[in-house]
Amino acid sequence: MSGAEFNETEYLAANPDVSVAVKSGSFGSGREHYEKYGKKEGRMLKRLFGRVSREEKVFQLLDKTGLGLEIGPSHNPIAPKKKGFNVHILDHASATELRNKYQGHDINLDSIEEVDFVWHGEPLQELLGKTSCYDWIIASHVIEHVPDVISYLQQCEILLKPDGVLSLVIPDKRYCFDYFRWPSSTGDALQAYMEHRTRHTPGTVFDHFSNAAKMGGMPAWASQLHGEMSFIHTLDNAQAAWKQAQESDEYIDIHGWRFTPSSFRLILHDLQRLNLTGMVEVGGFDTEGCEFFIALGKRQEKLLKGDRIKLAQSMVQEIADCASSIL
């Protein structure tokens, strides 16, 4: 296959589960995945005509001409400055540190953006020194990592202008290494909020490492794919991580939160009713590949009553349908 036939960006956009695998380091590039697995699986090299791209989903309700903030883009920004976006970049490390981290990993280091704000866990408005300043915020595969999801949503709300939008790309636990873990609950979020968590609990760390799984060697997969399930880590690995979480204050990067589309909406509904967030869903797209898209805006009017039982039933149905297709 010639270089002209393969386009890295189009392949990753057409196969978001592969994009996640590349971002996690499981593959050095989309081309590597295609040569090893994609060609045999019949993966699309680019999205079909009329199909909404990943970028189009992220930007559905965003004013691209406005000032934005992208949180945690690492080496794969969705709104890079070099494409003309008026955007600030916030990450856990500087651009130099990120380039050193990914050196030798078959990653285009030139795609790493200069980081405007290095985040060490402090409130976002404290780090940035301002509020109500952004027209949009993008966070792709970030919210599942933060120790306190309620504070995170509140801080994003504080940073947004009155008509600003928070665009979230969230891994669907049914189609990634979180498969064997139950979705997070509102009670889980409330407990983390009450404890002002800045790192994940030892028990959550253990659950992550002891239950993380892959299908057919992949840490994330599309819903229509099937393969042999296996654990990524040994129980000894999980025990070591559990002890490390007890003995050190160092942040351990894991998926502290697991969501399906309906489980996320149920938590959001509850937080609205508990007056812990003023954010409401204003748009989104259902799961494609291993991720779904939710756009949140500031509530402009009194919250309408939602149907919790339908959301809860939908969450259980989502999990049941997935389990029945694999088991």
Helix content: 25-40%
Can you count the helices? Answer: 12
What is the oligomeric state here? Answer: single chain
Spatial separation of the terminal alpha carbons: 36 Å
Can you offer a commentary on this structure?
- The protein has helices spanning 8-14, 16-23, 30-41, 54-58, 95-102, 124-128, 149-159, 186-194, 202-211, 235-247, 261-273, 308-326; strands at residues 68-71, 87-91, 117-118, 134-140, 160-171, 213-215, 229-231, 279-288, 291-298.
- The chain has a single domain (8-326), classed as Rossmann fold (3-Layer(aba) Sandwich).
- The protein has 327 residues and is an alpha/beta fold.
- The chain is globular.
- The protein is built from 12 helices and 9 strands.
- The model has no long low-confidence stretch (mean pLDDT 90).
- The strands form 2 sheets. The chain has a 7-stranded mixed β-sheet, with helices on one face. A two-stranded antiparallel ribbon has the order 6-7.
- The two termini are 36 Å apart.
SSE map:
Layout: H1 8-14, H2 16-23, H3 30-41, H4 54-58, E1 68-71, E2 87-91, H5 95-102, E3 117-118, H6 124-128, E4 134-140, H7 149-159, E5 160-171, H8 186-194, H9 202-211, E6 213-215, E7 229-231, H10 235-247, H11 261-273, E8 279-288, E9 291-298, H12 308-326
Parallel strand pairs: 1-2, 1-4, 2-3, 4-5
Antiparallel strand pairs: 5-9, 6-7, 8-9
Helix pairs in contact: 9-10, 11-12
